[in-house]
Amino acid sequence: xxxxxxxxxxxxxxxxxxxxxxxxxxxxxxxxxxxxxxxxxxxxxxxxxxxxxxxxxxxxxxxxxxxxxxxxxxxxxxxxxxxxxxxxxxxxxxxxxxxxxxxxxxxxxxxxxxxxxxxxxxxxxxxxxxxxxxxxxxxxxxxxxxxxxxxxxxxxxxxxxxxxxxxxxxxxxxxxxxxxxxxxxxxxxxxxxxxxxxxxxxxxxxxxxxxxxxxxxxxxxxxxxxxxxxxxxxxxxxxxxxxxxxxxxxxxxxxxxxxxxxxxxxxxxxxxxxxxxxxxxxxxxxxxxxxxxxxxxxxxxxxxxxxxxxxxxxxxxxxxxxxxxxxxxxxxxxxxxxxxxxxxxxxxx
Length: 349
Ligand code: AMP
Hints:
Blueprint: E1 3-7, H1 11-22, E2 26-30, E3 44-46, H2 53-62, E4 65-68, H3 75-82, H4 91-97, H5 100-109, E5 117-120, H6 123-132, E6 136-141, E7 151-155, H7 164-167, E8 173-176, E9 183-191, E10 197-199, E11 203-208, E12 211-217, H8 223-239, E13 244-252, E14 258-264, H9 274-277, H10 282-290, E15 304-310, H11 317-322, E16 326-330, E17 341-348
Parallel strand pairs: 1-2, 1-4, 2-3
Antiparallel strand pairs: 5-8, 6-7, 6-8, 9-10, 9-11, 9-13, 11-12, 12-15, 13-14, 15-17, 16-17
Helix pairs in contact: 1-10, 3-4
The structure holds adenosine monophosphate.
């Protein structure tokens, strides 16, 4: 095994390519955008659409194993590749996580609690579902939502739902019951080709405008809640016959009960802290998993906080660089648009 193919050229692919290089693997990125963050540090890039058959054939020919850095890789592309080369995580993980309804059904099937939900395909269904939830809920697109995009919150019966179905584009939606959570946490876990599972400690996440702002480790949860997160991640990895790193996001209620929100079949923004506070980061863990190497146990040597540098936050770079015990990681993006993730910093407590 020498070359790892990575579908997607963003910062997650970049950090995977860097981790791969340290273990003597070559990486080839499949990404339509030229000079993307990942290709800047990889051994090669195939500049093509993620579902371009000729590009997929080339990727399979040039790589020993293929992985991906985002969950909206077309399932048909992953399945086509899987006929030629191992594709990790398995394409089934993409199919499950690309649709919020199939994701919740899968989680419930693993014995993991989620928000109650109704699939919505019309304004009439939306109104019936809102009535069932006493007017409160979060309406989301079933597919292709990220960072809080494609969502609408209903706070109660006085919230006017007229036109809400059409306003989200007339696409399949899901209405989730509103979860009155105390905090949001996530867990990063991995499963190797031999079935070994390793979990990192759960992180506590704060979002701003729907985008992750900080991840703090340890999270303010008790051991029983941390164990519940590990058990949920273990059940998901096992049910999918998974290989690689996964991120699982939860709402934690005041009594410590966890409600799963979503799964990301890839390395995850709320796991970036592992590169500063663990000997083996989530990126190296993922490379180890897909390459069939032994996993790290996920041990953490420090408490820490990771903060995303979004848009203009990048202007504070000199301030971050001057701070002690602080690791700065930039993504090679030239233009700092609002909402764009430019880099992150992790400081050790
Ligand atoms: P998501 O795109 O599903 O990660 O949702 C973005 C953010 O919206 C979450 O991190 C929560 O802060 C909030 N949110 C999403 N779903 C719910 C829900 N069912 N109840 C309460 N808050 C939610």
